[in-house]
Amino acid sequence: MALSRRRCGAASAVAFSPCGTYRPGARHADMSDAPEDRGNDAGLIARPFNTELLKRFLLYSPAALAMFDNELRLVLASHKWFTLFGLEGRLVNRRPLEELVPDLPEHWRDACQQALSGVTRRAANEHFVRASGETLRVSWTLQPWFSAEGEIGGILMEVAPREAAAESRSVFTVANRMFRALYNQMPVMLFSLDRRNLISDVNRHWLEIMGYPFAETIGQPLARFLTDASRRYMERVCLPAFRANGVLKEEPIEFIRASGEPVAVLLSATANRDSAGFITDAVIVATDVTESRRIEEKLRQTALALRVLDQAVVLADRTGRITDINPAFSQLTGFSDAEAVGNGLFALLDTPELSAVSTTLEKQDRWEGELPLRHKGKASFAARVVVEQVREAGGEVAYQVMSCAPVSAVRSVSRASALAQRDQLTQLPNRHMLEERLSHLVAEATEHDEQVTVLCLDLDRFKTINEGFGHDVGDRILQAAARRLTSMVRADDIVARIGGDDFVIVLRHTRDTVHIEKFTGKLLDMLSDPMRLGEYEICLTACVGISRYPDDGAAADALLRNAGAALHTAKESGGGGFHFYSPELTTRAHKRLSLDSALRRALRKDEFELFYQPQVAVESCELRGVEALLRWRHPRSGLLLPQRFLDYAEETGLIVAIGEWVMREACRQIHVFELAGFSHLRVAVNVSTRQLVEEDFVRIVRQAIDESGIDPGNLELEVTETVFLKHSERLMQKLHELKSLGITLTIDDFGAGYSSLGYLKNLPVDRLKIDRIFVRDLPDDHNDAAIARAIVSLCDSLALEVVAEGVENEAQFACLKGMGCGLTQGYLFGQPMAAGALLGRYGVS
């Protein structure tokens, strides 16, 4: 079998003598068919290459070397190897290693398998039993060898008796230690790659920068540690150039730390080649430029910001020489870049008194004050000047910055800043100023282990008062409330108005809960004292929510948020009270926020529906009208009744948008009813107080009627009687405007509130609805029967229609019929149903 040679003179197979027996001095390979001219191929075997050279190399090599294929069959070996393993005179041609050395230690076998997978294994001092029974101490190396195509072809084995290795080991050990020390102390990232681009070694700096353990690094592909962009750049640009030239110089690459952060490096590499000219491994140097890149980017952004900054700014180096000015400075002083750059920073200041500036800068790196500033073509002018020194990490001055502005402009800005920090109506701190001062108080309380208390206060019924008495009176109430609150606190406490009728009080150095409760009680009592405003006397009540530092929050925003959650709970409990924050309130607040988002989505995605409950004539049991009732078709929870969401919508003002949708949808459905033959079927729509006080409510109703083209007489608006008790001139005007549209107005739940017959005779209403609480126990409860009979009689006297709601059985119906009640509504005649079901039930499809 002939020895075939690949490119660059690399031998790929060797056949032994025909008898297959190893004999010293015998011809061991037939190379007669090997081409003599290999062109420019280069290798360790010098030309002319012939069998005699190979024989001499194997015979006289001082090392015990053997070459095996990837099935661990012997390809060739040196005389020293045969002698060491006692194989002289044995048939060895293509024999497996197991057969040649049956007593090979188990960990040698494992090392062979690892070498076949590309890992080099070594041992420095081991016992080995020869075939003769003699025990030797040896060092050995097992490593892969590669074909011309770069694939693992098998393994190379080198074995050296300890006596032979001892002489070189001490020299090697010293040299290796010196190399490792230098390798690890280099201030750059050093690592090696094998021919498969797997990392074979790294230095300490690499591990420190990257943050990976050594064991998780060795044997890993380089691509694992690259960003996606750098991986593509490496494959497209770097690797082709490296394969061609064996060198890379300062290629910009980004690694990924174990923490996930990128590391910007400049990567240089040098290749090592084998005797055939193929790259066997590479040594790579990576210089970490992350910080310099960050500084460059910061400087770039600073320079960009400097260009567009309205304030005049000058940059100078550590010696005080100007390096840059921005356009604002040129505009302020008339000096161009060319005229200013290179001059001393202080040359711009028209005063000899600069020693104080220098002295201050030496002590605290900042000076601020008023100095005359030079102008190129005019007289010097007074300017507010700030000079700051920026130092490097080592403490040396890196550069200086000077900003300046005319004194007049600075004073204008100061006035504007003061105005921006105050509520214009009460002159109390606004939300922005409150948050700044509260953050400062929290920092002080942290340092001195003190408690801070935050009270969020909301005036009860203020919107009603504001609408009823007018905004001028409302403003005077807020000013008076601000004065009263301020009078209750100490000079270093805070009272702020953050919007509407919402105030915040911050108390320093508070002690315990009892102390806070006493203060809050006095505060509420003081606010409730009658307030005389011209011809009006008004009694205020308020609700208060309380949070405390550090128990209820470690930052200003958390304390304000939690006090707000407590305020909401206090308002739910009724006016004139207070509530302390507890963690459960945060959960409730999250639920409220979720409900808010869901309601807004429901409006956008048309998830609301209207159901209709019949109203029938008592005498004929004919359908005369329906009440439109809102339902929410929730995508996960199914059909929801109004009790689940309307209170929140009322409180937050979402009821206005929801109410507008109801108005338009009800008018659209009236049009459908009219087309279906119900030309005189009234549809009653409930209107909340919040809707009614909106300035454009009448416009919304008019527009809904016009767009749908309905008979206005078929639209009925139901308003609770409490709205009329709080009526204002503007509200009465709205009711008359609505009445003028031709619609029907009804007082809902009549008798359940604080009815006033004096108001009733002047209201532009057409109907009263007897509240269900007076119907529920009919005919057995004589008091309820008397009230219901009185309401029916009242309506007869005032020529108003009367509707009884909540009728559920024949006895209630008979009782109401006997009283002369005109219309009834309730489960006796049908539960609320969809419009289609209503039409089907009453004979129209």
CATH architecture of the largest domain: Alpha-Beta Barrel
What name does the CATH topology of the largest domain carry?
TIM Barrel
**End-to-end C-alpha gap:** 100 Å
The main pleated sheet reads as: 8 strands, mixed, barrel
Determine Rg (CA atoms, Å). Answer: 47 Å
Mean pLDDT: 82
The side-by-side strand order for the widest beta sheet comes to 23-24-26-27-28-29-30-31
CATH superfamily of the largest domain: EAL domain
Low-confidence stretches: 1-49, 164-168
Q: What level of helicity do the residues show?
A: 25-40%
Quaternary class: single chain
Morphology: elongated
Number of strands: 31
Task: Name the features.
5 domains; 31 strands; Beta-Lactamase; elongated; alpha+beta; eight-stranded mixed β-barrel; disordered N terminus; 845 residues
Any overview of this molecule?
With 845 residues, the protein is an alpha+beta fold. It has five domains: 7-168, Beta-Lactamase (2-Layer Sandwich), CATH 3.30.450.20; 186-288, 2-Layer Sandwich (Beta-Lactamase); 293-415, Beta-Lactamase (2-Layer Sandwich), CATH 3.30.450.20; 421-581, Reverse transcriptase/Diguanylate cyclase domain (Alpha-Beta Plaits, 2-Layer Sandwich); 599-841, TIM Barrel. It has 28 helices and 31 strands. An eight-stranded mixed β-barrel has the order 23-24-26-27-28-29-30-31. Helix 18 packs parallel to helix 20 (654-675) and helix 19 crosses helix 20. The chain is elongated. Mean pLDDT is 82; it is low at 1-49 and 164-168.
